[in-house]
Amino acid sequence: MKLISFALCCLALGLAGCAETGVDGQVVGAAQPHLLKLADGICRDEITGLMWLEKRSRKITDSAGAAHYAAGLDQGGYQGWRLPTLQEFSSLNATCMLNKTGDCRIQDKSAYWFTTEDGNIKAGRWVSPDYTCGLRYELEETETGYVRAVRP
Q: What tens digit of pLDDT does each residue of 37-85 get?
């Protein structure tokens, strides 16, 4: 089991701290949710503009199957779904941990498929080994996972 250390402290301070400007130029305050529920089970991150599927896939046992599943989605009239990058995956996790999901029913406590910077597809889940910073997590790689598809 390989662990990749990843501190969400700075990211968490950005999400929980002062107001931020969303993709539409409007100010999103710290007390406001970052995810806005759209029609057909789609949620949009008001900070990044990314659209996330609210419902996850069934458990998928291999990277090719995960990529194929995401690429084949046609949800809410939108195509172009894909696996999230590691950075997008960690941002969504921080949003969930900070209870910034609004009306979106997204909980990322399981293992999910994502892509790395070098284009590899991996599965993993965030675990908290301690609370030294409030939101310090490590990515524990797994053999299987769910797909939480994302699109621009």
A: 997 799 999 989 999 999 999 999 999 999 999 999 999 889 999 999 9
What is the number of structural domains in the chain?
1
Tell me if 24 is assigned to some domain: no
b/e per residue 119-140 (b: at least 16 CB within 10 A): eebbbbbbeeeeeeeebbbbbb
Segments forming the whole domain that contains residue 55 = 3-17+33-151
pLDDT value for 93: 85
Written as one letter, the residue type at 120 is: N
